Amino acid sequence: MTPTPDAMSPVSRTALSVARVRAYESGRPDPLFVDPYAAEFAVAAGMPTEVPENTRLSGLAAGLVLHIRLRTRFYDDRLTAAGAEQVVLLAAGLDTRAYRLDWPAGTRLWELDLPPVLAFKEQVLDSAGAMPRCERDVLAGDLLDPGWPRRLVAAGFDPQRPTVWLAEGLVVYLSAEQAAGLLTAVGSLSAPGSRLLMERGRDVSLTPQDPALAHVIALWQGGLGPDTDKWLDAHGWQTRTTSLAEAADTLGRPLPDGVGRTSGFIEAVRTTAR
Ligand SMILES: C[S@@+](CC[C@H](N)C(=O)[O-])C[C@H]1O[C@@H](n2cnc3c(N)ncnc32)[C@H](O)[C@@H]1O
Predict the structure, then answer these.
(1) What is the predicted pLDDT for the residue at 274?
(2) Is residue 113 within 6 Å of ligand 1 at its C-beta?
(3) Mind listing the domains of the chain with CATH numbers?
(4) Sorting pLDDT into bands at 50, 70 and 90, what band is 124?
(5) Is 12 in the pocket of ligand 1 (CB under 6 A)?
C-alpha cells in the first residue's frame, strides 16, 4: 500500500517539514548529518526535496530551518556520547536515529508518537528496506494520555536503569501545564544519572508575525517557556543550556544577524531518586 500522510493531524504534519529540512541538509556538500530516509518521507508525502532556486525565507523561517539543522546534529552527538542502554524518543516523528547512529551493542530504543505519524513512518521505512542499528520498539499513542508510562514499562522499559530521553521539537506544541505533566512523568521514570535532551520553551507572545508560517505559529503554545531549565532544576534535574548561537559556532554554521538568539538546547541530568 502506498504510504500517505493524510490521516496526520496538523501537529503531526510538522514532522514532515522537519524531514524535509533534514533532506535538504543531507544533500549539501558539507552536511552536519546525513539522514538517508528524510528524502524518502518527503517524496512519499509529495513534498519537494530540493530548495527551489531564488527561495527567499523570512527571518523566522530561516531561523527555524537553521534551528532544525543544528539541533539534529547537536542531539546526534549528545545521544551517542551518553552511551545509555535505554533511549526514549518522545514525539519521535520521522526521526531515523535508530537507523543512522552508531549505537553501543545492547542499546534498546523506544519511539513514541501519535498513531498516524508512526503508521506513515513504518510504511516508508519498510518500503526502503531500512534496518535499525539497535533494538527498536514503536509505541503509538498520545503523550498527554497518562497511561503512556505504564505502556512503556509493559514494552520492556526498566525505570531502574539510566535512560537518555529526547524530546525534540515537542514542548513548543504543549501548554505549560501539559509540558509540566509530561516532564513530571519523565522524571518519575528516570533513575539517577538519566539524561533529558530538549529545547527551551518559547514565549509565544514574542513570535513575530509571518503570514507564510501562520499555520505553524498557530500550533505553538510555548511549553514552559524560556525558564524551562529553571523548572527542571527545581524538579530533580541539573541542567546545562547551550544557546543556538554557541551550537552554531561549534558546528561551524554561525548564525546570521538577528536569527534564533533566544533559542537553546537543554541537557539535564537526573540527580534525585524517583
Ligand atoms: C516538529 S515534530 C518533531 C518530530 C521529531 N521529534 C523530530 O524532531 O524529527 C512534532 C512531533 O510531535 C508529535 N506530537 C505532538 N503532540 C503529541 C502528543 N500529544 N503525543 C504524541 N506525539 C505528539 C507530533 O506527532 C510530531 O511528530
Answers:
(1) 66
(2) yes
(3) 58-270 (3.40.50.150)
(4) very high
(5) yes
